[in-house]
Write a structure and sequence with these properties.
The chain is an all-beta fold. It has strands at residues 2-3, 12-15, 18-28, 36-43, 49-55, 59-62, 65-76, 79-84, 90-93, 98-99, 109-115, 121-125, 129-137, 150-155, 160-164, 172-176, 181-186. The strands form three sheets. Strands 1-6-2-3-4-5 form a six-stranded antiparallel beta sheet, with no helix packed on it.
């Protein structure tokens, strides 16, 4: 059991049989009245964000989770198949439980969160940034760096993102997996 004083980002709690991860929180102590904690919680199964306010001192059911490294192997009708790099066991995870699934390619390492008591898979997270190759985009022109204009581009996983005008087909770029945004061009 935990209380509202123990709330931190990344903490997993059980609310009415559903698991939620704390995305952000704020302790509020108004001049008049009791203190409270305002939180943003992400539902582990659906990914939906819930705004919830707890009174100070309320007891919460903390879920013990472990982070384990897994390697992505392939996708089939059961979902995305991963292998534990320590025990070599294979598991299938539905796409809804994987953050940044559009940027997942074979051989990538992900961090899988596992409920320690029941050994159930909660979520799988890609690294914050990944490096992917551009498979299609309109040709860029020399000198197109002055403005913040962007154009659509398709990367090797099939995802479509917006890139600056000077990026060409065949180049490798770094992409933020949280929001799918272009970060920088990668020199080889």
């Amino acid at each position: 059991m935990a209380t509202t004083a123990d709330i931190r980002n990344g903490m997993c709690i059980d609310i009415e049989g559903q698991y939620f991860v704390v995305v952000e929180f704020l302790h509020v102590k108004p001049g008049k009245g009791a203190a409270f904690v305002r939180t943003k919680l992400r539902n582990v199964k659906s990914g939906r964000i819930l705004d919830k306010t707890f009174n100070a001192g309320v007891k919460l059911d903390e879920v013990r989770i472990e982070r384990r490294p897994y390697q992505y192997l392939y996708k089939d009708d059961m979902g995305y198949n991963f292998m534990n790099t320590e025990t070599f066991e294979q598991i299938a995870i539905p796409g809804e439980q994987i953050e940044g699934v559009a940027f997942l390619k074979e051989g990538d390492m992900v961090e899988v969160q596992v409920h320690t008591e029941t050994e159930t898979i909660l979520t799988a997270e890609l690294p914050t940034t990944v490096i992917l190759q551009i498979t299609y985009t309109e040709p860029g022109l020399k000198g197109d760096t002055a403005t913040n204009a962007t154009k659509p581009a398709t990367v090797e996983t099939g995802a479509e993102i917006r890139v600056p005008l000077f990026i060409n087909e065949g180049e490798k770029i770094k992409i933020n997996t949280k929001d799918g945004s272009y970060v920088e061009r990668v020199k080889e």
